[in-house]
Design goal:
The chain is of the alpha+beta class. The chain has two domains: 4-120, D-amino Acid Aminotransferase, Chain A, domain 1, CATH 3.30.470.10; 125-280, D-amino Acid Aminotransferase, subunit A, domain 2 (D-amino Acid Aminotransferase, Chain A, domain 2, Alpha-Beta Barrel). It contains eight helices and 16 strands. Strands 7, 8, 9, 10, 11, 12, 13, 14 and 15 form a nine-stranded mixed beta sheet that branches. Strands 2-1-6-5-3-4-16 form a seven-stranded antiparallel beta sheet. The two termini are 25 Å apart. The structure holds N-(5'-phosphopyridoxyl)-D-alanine. Residues 35, 156, 182, 185-187, 207, 209-212, 245-248 line the site of N-(5'-phosphopyridoxyl)-D-alanine (PDD).
């Protein structure tokens, strides 16, 4: 089946989907994005993703490209056209196309919107989770606002490449004081030996993950203890468990950090239980049926 992308008002074949060379996303990383999980054809926590998109757009002073209802329709339609049952939908909004100039263009410039959708192999993701992943730590060399979901991801891609070359699947960024901020494309969590969950407070140093928020809901529902605070690499090495969260693979156990085994080197019970129960607390959104 050929893939379809949404580009600035049109659904086009993925292979010939193009943006202009002076798209500000291309020239200045002047764009924001969202990745929303698709589970059994439904968008997972779409409302929270669109709320975060609104915030990212506001922070960068990019105009909302269309109404929320219209955006939801485009997301659902792209998922349907690509026949995605389990996978994710990607949405990018750039400030638009304008002659290259560092100053911001006329605020009336229409933003540029791209949406793609892709299936994932659930069974493969499940096998990965059953084994657990390895992470390595790298210095956090990103700009000061990783709380905004911009496409400025070069430090993240380079960090993840370092991880890959070391036989790991994720890199954890570490700030100047030795505390873990987050993963290259995930939020980082540990479970202490006395059973408390710890993840960094969602200030300007990390992205407030939608999956992180969902896991918080689940943790509260189960009366587990959670602390939103920074933790050091050393504390993580001595933890009972570690895991990462993101929309592309909700809860993934971490079994090695910098080559050191976490716990007994296999996925921990807390991470596996949260993974199994994650969709109990999420909003599942399906296209509105207009009776047609
Ligand atoms: N990444 N931190 C970073 C730096 C991320 O890029 C992501 C998501 C997260 C987790 O956020 P959420 O739970 O909302 O997915 C945390 C997406 C999946 C990506 O770039 O592909």
């Amino acid at each position: 089946m050929s893939r379809i992308a949404y580009v600035n008002g049109r659904y086009v074949p993925h292979r010939s989907a193009m943006v202009h060379i002076e798209d500000r996303g291309y020239q200045y990383a002047d764009a924001v994005y969202e990745v929303c999980e698709v589970s059994d054809g439904a968008l997972v926590d779409m409302t929270r993703h669109l709320d975060r998109l609104d915030r990212s757009l506001r922070e960068l002073r990019i105009r909302p490209p269309m109404s929320r209802g219209a955006l939801a329709t485009v997301l659902h339609r792209t998922v349907a056209l690509n026949r995605v049952r389990d996978g994710f939908v990607y949405l990018q909004v750039s400030r638009g196309v304008a002659r290259r100039d560092h100053f911001l263009p006329d605020p009336a410039l229409p933003p540029a919107v791209v949406v793609t959708a892709r299936s994932v192999d659930r069974a493969a993701a499940e096998r990965t989770a059953r084994k657990g992943i390895a992470v390595v730590t790298v210095p956090d060399n990103r700009w000061g606002r990783p709380d905004i979901k911009t496409v400025q991801l070069l430090p993240n891609t380079l960090a993840k490449q370092v991880a890959k070359e070391a036989g790991a699947s994720e890199a954890w960024f570490v700030d100047a004081s030795g505390h873990v901020t987050e993963g290259g494309s995930t939020n980082a969590w540990i479970v202490t030996k006395d059973g408390r969950l710890v993840t960094r407070q969602a200030d300007s140093s990390i992205l407030r993950g939608i999956t992180r928020t969902g896991v918080m809901d689940l943790v509260k529902r189960r009366n587990l203890l959670v602390e939103e605070r920074a933790f050091t690499v050393e504390e993580a090495l001595g933890a009972a468990e570690a895991f990462v969260t993101s929309a592309s693979n909700p809860v993934t156990p971490v079994v090695r950090i910098n080559g050191n085994m976490i716990g007994d080197g296999s996925p921990g019970p807390v991470a596996l239980a949260l993974r199994a129960a994650f969709h109990e607390v999420t909003e599942l959104s399906r296209p509105v049926n207009h009776g047609k």
